[in-house]
Amino acid sequence: MVEISNHMPTAELQALDAAHHMHPFSTQSGFSKKGARVITRAKGTRLWDSEGAEILDAMAGLWCVNIGYGRDELAEAAYRQMKELPYYNTFFQTTHVPVIALSQRLAELAPGDLNHVFYAGSGSEANDTNIRMARFYWAQKGKPEKNIIISRKNAYHGSTLGAMSLGGMSGMHTQGGVVQNVHHIDQPNWWSEGGDMSPEDFGIERAQQLEKAILELGEDRVAAFIAEPIQGAGGVIVPPDSYWPELKRICDQYDILLIADEVICGFGRTGNWFGSETVGIQPHIMTIAKGLSSGYAPIGGSIVCDEVAEVVGGDEFNHGYTYAGHPVSCAVALENLRILDEEGIVTRAREEIAPYLKEKFEGLTEHPMVGEAKIVGMMGSIALTPHKESRAAFASETGTVGYMVRERCFANNLIMRHVGDRMIISPPLVISKEDVDLLIARAWQSLDEGMAQVKADGLFKPA
Ligand SMILES: *Cc1c(COP(=O)(O)O)cnc(C)c1O
């Protein structure tokens, strides 16, 4: 047996990783040429790698470490719970204290009559639950044919077969097929798709695609509309201000369920507890995960309104995960929510750090390769372009330039992701103003270096 530890040379760790660990969303064969960066520890907004580099994590892991790394209280909550009751299920008329306490707390935090929680191990699983729950709800009401779910192109709802089908990532759909009866409308991405329209008109047009789809498919066929309040993995697409009010009008007018996928937006990311509050909607179901435990333990779920819970609860819902309401994850999530609340982290993000970050982040539009900068609360994106006025794309395959800049960020010890040719951030909510300054300085430097490379490669020209 090989003894594997932090003290091994990086190259050996990378070789073992490439040999035995299959990475998500990666070209596996690439790891034998260029090893994965080995992250060894973290504190606050910082990561350290096996070479000793200190990295500023402007993505909060995968949008999830809202309270920052290294909070002992969460470790202790997990330790205490594991000793007392490491596992018990919630099937067959059993329950336990951590799941009761977390459910009560979520009912308190969630807006309106979202008072009931169905747990999952992740956001993807929760969205699979939502597909089945929305369809079961209408079947229970005598309308089994009301089973189409409308979603949006370039939405991200997870990676299981169901969640992936809800999502609008064509690169995922083509690998292995999709589940039936999911319909996609266009996304509100004005920068790339708005053409000559004003952002406001474009927002209305994109929202009205929902109404058109409901009328075409038939109101009696459409079960639900699902959307992220602000699209995350699609590139932090902040819709025009006109978009959500129009969607809300449509959802209120037709008899369909509104599912808000709050996996990223929830738990302070947009400056409120939930993105639904930020965009002014009252969904029937909310998907939660990520920031619920700040990523310290895997947990997800669906927060369900009174009426849906009552109808679904009227018969046996043949659905559930072994780790639904896992006591350790629930204990960790509760402690995370306590800290977010008692330390005023959500309020501080909204009133202090988000405005500061917005001002600095929008300053990046002065860089010659940056078109728009969009930010809501603590999630933002910039669009890279060779020509700002025409919002042109580069004369290279989408993502080529974004990847170059991402690599420069990596080299400059800043974790900033690219989605196509957009660069995105979603830092821990506890980030300090000094760290915001550092983030912007490193981003600027990486943009400079990236642009030099783009120019050297002859790619700094419109498509
Ligand atoms: C990450 C994400 C998911 C999937 O959550 P997992 O925990 O990765 O399964 C679903 N919806 C949104 C909006 C997400 O960002």
TrEMBL record:
Domain of life where this protein originates: Bacteria
This protein's record includes keyword Transferase: yes
InterPro entries named in the record: Aminotrans_3 (IPR005814), Aminotrans_3_PPA_site (IPR049704), PyrdxlP-dep_Trfase (IPR015424), PyrdxlP-dep_Trfase_major (IPR015421), PyrdxlP-dep_Trfase_small (IPR015422)
UniProt keyword Phosphoprotein, yes or no: no
UniProt GO MF annotations: pyridoxal phosphate binding; transaminase activity
Gene3D superfamilies assigned to the protein according to its UniProt record, in alphabetical order: Aspartate Aminotransferase, domain 1, Type I PLP-dependent aspartate aminotransferase-like (Major domain)
Cofactor(s) this protein cannot do without: pyridoxal 5'-phosphate
PROSITE patterns attached to this UniProt entry: AA_TRANSFER_CLASS_3
UniProt keyword annotations, A-Z: Aminotransferase, Pyridoxal phosphate, Transferase
Cross-referenced NCBIfam families: PRK07480.1 (NF005682)
Similarity-based family: Belongs to the class-III pyridoxal-phosphate-dependent aminotransferase family.
Name of the featured protein: Uncharacterized protein
Species this chain originates from: Donghicola eburneus
